[in-house]
Backbone:
């Protein structure tokens, strides 16, 4: 989804961070986990303490199947464990609640770890997994039906074994099961509470739910029956919902809270001045970009779309808009992603002359005017100004129409089909096939023009979910990404890095590529 | 004033309130429907499809005709059911029950500050019109009106909360949890909110008093040898009471609305934040519920003021 669901505030040049700074920062608070934890973790973590977090959005629901906002995950991961997990740095999948394998392309087998129970004491067994997956596929309130559309049938093949029969090969399924669809809720709780489970969730994660006051607080406390001893160190987490990011940071500076995430880089001077805070940063999939409506006159011309890509000075954009806390985007995946294609990054160097030449060839020798939807927050306005100036230099005059995120994104992607382009963000998905099919397949909601680009792209989207080995998938994504960028279906601008401000007593935190904080390894000094 | 007269006032006001309630909620409902944006898209989630968005509209009745949606809401509201938030599923009444005390506390404290400082300043200024004290009070009042409350709020946070650490920078504590903590959290927002009010009260009171003190009856009292203090306190302030009550009522209603900005700066989960968040996501039941309650509050405050008018000045019918 666009940042309609991930309302981080964007930026203005303030303090700049070098790559070295970022690496130092990322390492600075990495602490603390026993042998089964990630490589960056240390031994003998301290248990205890209440972690107070400035959260920038109210959850849409605390039931993973019925919620919809990208900002929900940071709450959900405290209450729910997932069937599959991913590596923090690359998003490569690995076993979570279950080990998984594909005995044949249309069958996925999940082998659950023994002895796991939900917070209400009911067992997390094969029947519970089947209940969850069937609920995700069939419940009228489920928002994850599309994620599980490849599933034909879920079978209980043993007390702790589930066999998933597929309609078509789908090797993206492990990544899908590392997201909402893989968060296991207690069937007993859902059956007892019905829709109320949205507000009183029961999972099998490190912490159990205590309370949720909408737009005010979410509180979770340690689950004593949690199955893993190498994570979930703090006794509880209290999320204060503070949508205004500068205010959320102020709560950390004042010592009322311990942790603020998705801090806009323009606030770095405030963190530095505070002295009692530490910064943590790392790459994410959060891609600022210009979405095209490919059905609109002008943008239905390949040369115009390419001209825009040549006209953008991405390095300057990262410096001016993100204070250097990001990286230039040349495709929809950042450098650290396993499917990143280095050669593609050279496709559109900043070349205003080439942009002008392409515009002239497209019949726009005197330039052209395009309308762009954007948002009213301070950082979006600044980004708009930068893009407007960069494109003006090659003769493309942009007319920005601004409004709230739901309003503008609805007008662009919905039935109204307003604006030629949208300056927004793609928040990323655990598997790249989700990103590409959600934005570029013919009837995808985020393909504003509902245009079929080519049969080859459609075929590759299907192939990307059929290939079994990651190396094979990587090659398919390289071909897919090349089509997307050669056809200039989008103008990526920059990946905004995660920026966390934490009090000095916080240890063990490491950002992940999804850019949504997990608290499982955090420790608090006494 | 006789009891029957008061009852008549109350009945008349309540009858007037009904169309105001309906009109206000209808206009807000209509405006929200006219605004671009669709909560079904938000509710459909990150991986929204056209089909899912359509299903959501069906599920929540968002594709029913406008008047049917409004009528259904209105009937339920008058039966005490303000429905549930579309965005969070929380009953709207519960959200309001939690948010309203936070807002009310700030407004009441701000009113206390506005009246507590504004009345003495007004008296001071009126005691010698155009004198030095009057000019100082006028200058301070102009400053109070000119300073935007969000700016003052941020200055107060930076100075008293972040630099000196005397007050919390954000949040609110419900009165039922801890009265001292609750007041401690509410003081800075109330101060930020009260600045304009202090100025308004002092200026209005000064004008009223100057007019009253230069009127023929007061001149007569002065000629009869009554002291300046007695004239000011016994005759001046009493006669300025009706005017002061009008100012205070208007101020209270205005402060209720002004909390929107202050609540954002201090991250207070009050009525302002509730309605802003709901409006941004097009969460109609929450917006309607807040409007409904706020209209009721304003009507009640106005009614109380009407009754007080008749106490202060028996000539008022």
Residues:
């Amino acid at each position: 989804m666009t940042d309609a669901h991930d309302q981080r505030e964007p930026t203005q040049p303030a303090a700049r961070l070098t790559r070295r700074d970022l690496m130092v920062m990322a390492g600075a608070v990495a602490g603390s986990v026993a042998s089964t934890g990630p490589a960056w973790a240390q031994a003998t973590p301290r248990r205890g303490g209440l972690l107070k977090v400035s959260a920038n959005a109210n959850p849409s629901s605390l039931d993973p199947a019925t919620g919809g906002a990208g900002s929900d995950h940071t709450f959900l991961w405290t209450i729910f464990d997932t069937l599959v997990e991913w590596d923090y740095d690359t998003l490569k999948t690995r076993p979570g609640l279950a080990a998984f394998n594909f005995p044949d392309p249309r069958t996925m087998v999940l082998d659950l770890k023994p002895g796991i129970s939900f917070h209400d004491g009911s067992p997390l067994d094969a029947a519970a997994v089947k209940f969850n997956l069937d609920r995700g596929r069939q419940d009228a309130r489920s928002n994850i039906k599309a994620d599980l559309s490849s599933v034909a049938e879920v079978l209980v093949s043993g007390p702790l074994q589930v066999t998933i029969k597929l309609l078509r090969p789908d090797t993206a399924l492990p990544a899908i099961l590392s997201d909402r669809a893989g968060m296991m809720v207690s069937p007993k709780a859902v059956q007892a509470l019905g829709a109320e489970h949205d507000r009183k969730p029961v999972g099998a994660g490190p912490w159990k739910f205590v309370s949720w006051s909408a737009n005010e607080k979410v509180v979770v406390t340690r689950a004593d029956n949690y199955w893993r001893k190498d994570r979930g160190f703090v006794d509880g987490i209290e999320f204060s919902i503070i949508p205004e990011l500068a205010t959320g940071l102020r709560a950390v500076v004042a010592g009322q809270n311990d942790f603020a995430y998705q801090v806009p880089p323009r606030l770095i001077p405030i963190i530095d001045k505070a002295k009692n805070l530490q910064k943590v940063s790392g790459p994410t999939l959060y891609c600022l970009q210009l979405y095209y409506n490919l059905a609109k006159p002008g943008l239905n011309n390949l040369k115009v779309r390419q001209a825009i890509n040549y006209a953008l000075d991405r390095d300057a954009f990262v410096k001016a808009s993100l204070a250097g806390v990001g990286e230039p985007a040349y495709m929809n995946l950042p450098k650290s992603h396993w499917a990143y294609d280095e050669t593609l990054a050279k496709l559109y160097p900043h070349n205003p002359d080439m942009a002008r030449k392409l515009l002239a060839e497209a019949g726009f020798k005197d330039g052209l005017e395009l309308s762009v939807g954007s948002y009213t927050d301070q950082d979006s306005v600044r980004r708009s100004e930068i893009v407007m100036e960069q494109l003006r230099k090659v003769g493309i005059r942009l007319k920005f129409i601004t409004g709230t995120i739901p309003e503008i994104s609805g007008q662009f992607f919905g039935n109204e089909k307003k604006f030629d382009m949208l300056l927004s963000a793609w928040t990323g998905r655990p598997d790249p096939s989700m990103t590409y099919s959600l934005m570029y397949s013919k009837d995808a909601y985020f393909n504003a023009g509902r245009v079929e680009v080519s049969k080859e792209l459609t075929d590759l989207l299907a192939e990307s979910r059929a290939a079994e080995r990651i190396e094979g998938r990587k090659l398919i994504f390289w071909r897919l990404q090349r089509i997307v960028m050669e056809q200039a279906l989008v103008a990526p601008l920059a990946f905004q890095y995660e920026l966390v401000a934490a009090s000095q007593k916080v240890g063990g935190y490491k950002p992940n590529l999804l850019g949504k904080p997990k608290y499982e390894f955090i420790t608090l000094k006494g | 004033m006789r009891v029957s007269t008061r009852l008549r006032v109350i009945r008349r006001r309540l009858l007037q309130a009904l169309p105001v309630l309906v009109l206000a909620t209808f206009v807000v409902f209509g405006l929200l429907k006219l605004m671009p944006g669709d909560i079904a898209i938000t509710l459909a989630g990150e991986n929204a499809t056209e089909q899912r968005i359509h299903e959501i509209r069906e599920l929540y009745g968002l594709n029913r005709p406008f008047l049917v949606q409004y009528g259904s809401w209105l009937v339920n509201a008058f039966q005490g059911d303000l429905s549930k938030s579309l965005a969070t599923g929380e009953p709207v009444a519960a959200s309001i029950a939690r948010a309203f005390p936070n807002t009310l506390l700030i407004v009441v404290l701000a009113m206390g500050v506005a009246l507590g400082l504004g009345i003495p300043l007004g008296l001071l200024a009126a005691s010698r019109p155009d004198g030095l004290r009057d000019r100082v009070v006028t200058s301070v009042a102009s400053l109070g009106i000119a300073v935007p409350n969000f700016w003052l709020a941020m200055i107060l946070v930076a100075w008293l909360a972040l630099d000196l650490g005397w007050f919390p920078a954000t949040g609110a504590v419900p009165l039922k949890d801890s009265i001292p903590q609750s007041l401690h959290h509410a003081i800075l927002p109330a101060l930020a909110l009260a600045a304009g009010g202090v100025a308004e009260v002092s200026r209005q009171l000064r004008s009223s008093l100057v007019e009253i003190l230069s009127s023929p009856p007061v001149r007569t009292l002065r000629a009869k040898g009554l002291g300046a203090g007695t004239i000011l306190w016994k005759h001046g302030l009493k006669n300025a009471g009706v005017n002061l009550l009008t100012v205070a009522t208007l101020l209270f209603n205005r402060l209720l609305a002004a909390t929107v900005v202050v609540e954002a700066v201090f991250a207070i989960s009050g009525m302002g934040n509730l309605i802003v968040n709901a409006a941004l996501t097009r969460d109609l039941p929450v917006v309607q519920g807040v409007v409904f309650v706020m209209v009721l509050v304003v009507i009640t405050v106005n009614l109380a003021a009407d009754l007080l008018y008749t106490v202060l000045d028996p000539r008022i019918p």
